[in-house]
Amino acid sequence: MDWSQSLRLVAPEELLSVTGLVLLLGSAWAKGRRDARAINWLAVLALAIAAVMVAPSLCAGLSGPAAVAFGGLYSGDAFSAFAKLLIFAAAGASLLVAPAFFDRLRAMRGEYPVLVLFAVAGMSMMVSATNLLTLYIGLELNSLAAYVLAAFLKNDQRSAEAGLKYFVLGALASGILLFGMSLLYGFTGTTSFGGIAAALGGEMSGGALFGLVFVLAGLAFKISAVPFHMWTPDVYEGAPTPVTMFFASAPKVAALMLTMRVTLGAFGSQTAAWQQIVIALSLMSIVVGALGAIGQQNIKRLLAYSSINNVGFLLIGLAAATPAGAAAMLIYLTIYVAMTVGGFVAVLMLRDKHGNQIEAIADIAGLSRERKVLAACLAMVMFSLAGIPPLFGFWGKFVVFNAAVQAGLLPLAVIGIAASVIGAFYYLKVVKVMYFDEPVGQALGKSDWVHQAILLIAALFISPLGYLLTKCLDRFASLAIAALFSGV
């Protein structure tokens, strides 16, 4: 084993871990909001440096033995680099918007950016995992930090409840995943993804099939796919809004990319065994996400069901089980992160004149006449999530449906398109309230320049200008998928 190569490939995780430990020590001596803000900015800087460190791997399409570290436990290939760039961007945005939210509640502490850094380090391990042991270590590092983040507001009953629910259900999902991993190890004799794929090359035994099902069930919880979605609306509503924004973007990317690596890598030789499961998860997530959102009156709960709905669309690309379907997933995932960040930043900017957070959809009635730019940006996010052209969200759904049709899954694509039309109802409801209802004069609070800048960037990305990036996105997605399939 080449230790120098291994240490070089895991340099981003080393940076995040060491920075997190140093900032943890710094937070113990931090006094007041100024020190907490300084720690927050240092965490953002660490994420930016880590992104610079992984970008060359994606640009060079790194794959094969040159990307393998620690004897096959870790892969720093272009596929993981693509995922890490999305994770770092989403986590950085979640850190940037946090101080203004927590300062109002006098709850900004240095522990928040430290927990985010540790969670990101775990997610980086997840997307680079090529062994069940590495997978579990990364997953638990991310989960343990996430449980604390959900309950970060100690004096808020909703936050405490969200953290407790997430912990209990997350522990159950981890147990299910671990049981599936033990079954796979028992029936294949290895924990390596490549070894599992080789062992499952022939006829799959009943025990290995049970292991596959349990592993997919555990991963389905992490991506909040139906029927393992029950925690999502409550945790998204109860957790602090910057934390909800973080949960809806970065961990979602990590879990979906990990699911791709497991299914297309470890289970790549048994596509018929897991394809039906993924199709069922996709259809249920699309339908339940669309129908569940219709009656929601809280915008954070609405975005939670929207997240479930979008996971269903993303899984259509995975169900195709082709390089084109996997590449379509990456393109959709990139656009989804931009839409999610933009949506939650807009929610953070919805404040009354006293600075209190507004979450009820009824309270943003007539927003277009009081805060025109904010209403326009939020409307763009809603239209894009609905997949209405010419916004960039339409392109994400188009490439996924196109990949499904090419793979012979026409009925799945047709159902997805029909459900997308149904889902458009609750997105349009938000736009209708903002533009056609009488103003209630609630969302009059001012926002700082950081929120405005991030919302503007997200809005430009999902606008028709985003189509200028399609060739660039296609190229990087192709490089990432080529690296993934080179190891299959």
Q: How far is the N terminus from the C terminus?
A: 21 Å
What's the order of the H and E elements? HHHEEHHHHHHHHHHHHHHHHHH
How does the major sheet shape up? 2 strands, antiparallel
User: How much is the radius of gyration in Å?
Assistant: 21 Å
Helix count equals: 21
Mean pLDDT figure: 88
Quick description:
This protein is mainly α. The chain has helices at residues 3-9, 11-29, 32-59, 78-96, 98-104, 111-128, 132-150, 157-188, 193-199, 206-222, 232-238, 241-266, 271-294, 299-320, 323-348, 367-370, 372-386, 393-406, 410-436, 449-462, 470-486; strands spanning 68-69, 74-75.
Any descriptors?
two-stranded antiparallel sheet, 488 residues, mainly alpha
Textual characterization of the structure:
With 488 residues, this protein is mostly helical. The protein has 21 helices and 2 strands. The protein has a two-stranded antiparallel sheet. Helix 17 (372-386) runs antiparallel to helix 19. The model has no long low-confidence stretch (mean pLDDT 88).
